[in-house]
Write a structure and sequence with these properties.
By secondary structure, the protein is an alpha+beta fold. Helices cover 41% and strands 17% of the residues.
């Protein structure tokens, strides 16, 4: 079906495609660009022609007929320029580009080449239209460098700016369609129709395929059908239960967005079958491959191992080359138009079901002065765009009607104990939630007696000293402050959480080492005043300014401040034990890490866009702490209520001293003391810790 969807747009550019490819072929033989730019344009032209070869193979059906050795050879050719040591002398590296091409044009030409590399996945999907417009952009920029009057930086900047401005409506439509339209079935066809034992199927995506993808696909390929089905059942049942637990009607929905890493197709195939029995068709979209979609900022959709994390980090702010108010307004208009086009499908979209992976070597990035950065004004615009786009999306994919689920598994690069860690992860994902539910309820019964909770780190190791204000209960027989969270939307089981009262929530949160969204932080420290971030720092770099910028960009997400959106106590000590036994604490994803100690989320609450929907714990009590003094502003001005981010920061048990409930009369009771659970009836949680 996806070929039919692309057909009209591809036909529209048929002649343009032939003309631009002919022109690019000529560039490889020309010497008219001034030095030192000749080599750049010839090499990028050769890369484009290589992508054209792939497109030609896709168009005449040869891609699916390649042998495994041919697939590997082509995969290496397409990505070798940014792999390992090759990246040090690649024009995709802004440092090398500036060094060889000069400060005036090096960074912008590196940015252009990074955008051109999106032709790889476009070629595999048969997107002639997208390849054509990128080729035309390249030749337009080339023309700026061969003009008889000389190169003018403004002309190069304008060519790039107007490309993203003029095509933003197309890009927004592609994004929305990928989210809600099951007829766009390129990825689903790979999952459902391929011979998953023949590993050539991995190379049909157009992604970089590493040993992780090959080995995980082979590992899952050797598992028994019932084992694969059990993994899929855990994943899809979590999704179904999430709707039921939050009082949302799944029967009115028709699609679910399946997000997964390449290599997990056997599990995904079984899951798609499960979803079909629920009346849901799977939509699958590709992770962003252009700066337009914030390439490199997070792993969403269908994705594979990044060929070079430093490359993506170097280009994470490439939008800054064209990001201004007019562009933002144009893309917001395009987003609304796209949702209007697909509004019926959007209304029936149920939300994402996500499979994450962990185990890759933690990435500590190098900050390069040659890499583009956002200005203060652009950062403000990014915050504005996130707020507006979140509101538009919520109008069509309604927050109080959608849900999600997330589950995670290790990849082979986690080390020699991969098989044991995988088996342990499956065990953790299927722990008896009833037992946890009972123990967690005993903790909640104590927490509900308090007005504040005091969290203190272990002396000499962690200097966390933070007091959290709790929502006041009006009727303790019918209301509760904390949600008893078992294995539904967040798998595995194991936490109780609340939306803190911001006023009176003060102190310091400190973690010696933590891994957030694939980035490592050393001695991350955040200071709160009345629930809002007052100060922050880390120790990743020698320069304090760099440290603050790192946290500002990747934790605060360019906001000047954020509220504490969640305070939680993780109870999955089995996951904690696994992390310590295999020495993989720094490789756990947030999804599992947040269950291995108390954690605090900065940003929106867990009830974003669903605050007015009543939710209940298994004991029948309503969870009333769904709002805070920021989120409640939605009733006056929705732009002030949401930040469109939520990052969990966990204190591991071995860095924790006490979690103490403080009551209105001044009395207190410990939930955790000396890093151990002490509420009567929760002693079982300590066994993995001993």
């Amino acid at each position: 079906m996806y070929k039919e969807i692309y057909k009209e747009k591809n036909e529209e550019v048929k002649e343009r495609f032939d003309l631009v490819m002919e022109r690019i072929a000529e560039i490889t033989k020309e010497d008219v660009a001034p030095a030192p730019y000749i080599d750049y344009f010839k090499k990028v032209s050769a890369f484009i022609l290589m992508c054209k070869e792939v497109f030609d193979m896709e168009e005449d059906g040869r891609l699916e007929k390649r042998s495994l050795s041919e697939c590997k050879e082509w995969n290496q050719r397409l990505y070798e320029d940014i792999l390992g040591e090759n990246y040090e002398k690649s024009y995709a590296n802004p440092s090398y580009a500036v060094k060889t091409l000069g400060e005036e044009y090096g960074d912008i030409l590196s940015f252009l080449y990074s955008e051109i590399r999106a032709m790889i996945p476009y070629a595999f999907e048969g997107r002639k239209y997208n390849i054509t417009i990128l080729g035309e952009l390249f030749t337009e920029v080339y023309g700026c460098f061969t003009d008889e009057e000389g190169v003018v930086l403004k002309s190069v900047e304008q060519a790039l700016y107007w490309f993203f401005h003029d095509y933003s409506e197309i890009f927004e439509e592609e994004k929305v369609q990928g989210l809600v339209d099951p007829d766009l079935d390129f990825f689903r066809n790979i999952v459902m129709e391929s011979d998953l034992i023949d590993l050539t199927y991995l190379y049909r995506y157009g992604f970089y395929i590493s040993d992780d993808e090959l080995q995980i696909a082979e590992y899952l390929g050797n598992m028994k059908d019932e084992e694969i089905q059990a993994m899929a059942d855990t994943y899809t049942e979590g999704y179904r239960i999430g709707f039921r637990a939050n009082g949302k009607d799944l029967s009115i929905k028709e699609t679910v967005c399946v997000e997964y890493p390449v290599g997990f197709e056997r599990m995904v195939r079984a899951a798609i079958g499960n979803f079909a029995k629920m009346g849901l068709k799977a939509t699958i979209y590709r992770e962003p491959v252009s700066s337009y979609g914030n390439k490199g900022n997070s792993r969403r959709g269908c994705y594979s191992t990044l060929p070079n994390k430093q490359y993506d980090y170097d280009h994470k702010s490439d939008q800054a080359f064209y990001y201004d108010k007019a562009f933002v307004e144009r893309r917001l208009e395009g987003l609304k138009t796209a949702f209007e086009t697909y509004k019926e499908k959007a209304y029936k979209h149920a939300g994402p079901a996500v499979i994450e992976v962990f185990g890759e070597v933690p990435f500590a990035p190098v900050n390069k002065k040659e890499a583009k950065q956002f200005s203060d004004k652009q950062n403000q615009l990014k915050v504005y765009n996130a707020s507006q786009s979140g509101q538009i999306t919520n109008l069509y994919v309604k927050g109080d009607e959608r849900s999600f689920t997330i589950i995670a598994y290790p990849v082979p690069s986690i080390g020699k104990d991969f098989k044991e860690i995988f088996a342990k992860t499956v065990e953790i994902n299927t722990l008896d939630y009833k037992r946890y539910q009972t123990m967690q309820q005993k903790m909640i019964d104590v927490l509900d007696t308090g007005v504040k909770v005091h969290v203190k780190g272990k002396e000499g190791i962690n200097h966390t000293d933070l007091t959290v204000s709790l929502y006041p209960l009006k009727d303790k027989t019918k209301e509760t402050i904390f949600e008893n969270c078992v294995a539904d939307v967040n798998i595995p089981v194991g936490e109780v959480f609340t939306s803190p009262v911001l006023e009176g929530t003060n102190g310091v949160l400190h973690v010696t080492k933590v891994y957030l969204n694939e980035l490592q932080y050393k001695d991350l420290e955040v200071t709160f005043e009345d629930g809002m971030i007052k100060d922050y720092n880390c120790a990743n770099f020698e320069d304090e300014k760099e440290n603050k910028a790192y946290v500002y960009e990747n934790v605060l997400m360019h906001h000047d401040t954020l509220p504490i959106g969640e305070f939680a106590i993780g109870t999955n000590t089995t996951a904690y034990r696994m992390a310590r036994d295999f020495d993989i604490a720094d490789k756990l994803p947030i999804l599992i890490a947040e269950k291995t100690g108390p954690h605090f989320a900065v940003g929106d609450t867990c009830y974003q866009h669903s605050e007015d929907r009543a939710v209940f714990n298994p004991d029948g009590k309503e969870i009333v702490a769904r709002d805070n003094s920021v989120s409640i502003l939605r009733k006056e001005d929705v732009e002030k209520a949401y930040f469109n981010c939520h990052t969990d920061i966990t204190i591991p048990y071995d860095e924790l001293d006490t979690i103490t409930v403080i009551r209105a009369d001044g009395s207190s009771e410990d939930i955790i003391r000396g890093g151990r659970f002490v509420v009567e009836g929760t002693e079982e949680l300590n066994r993995p810790l001993d």
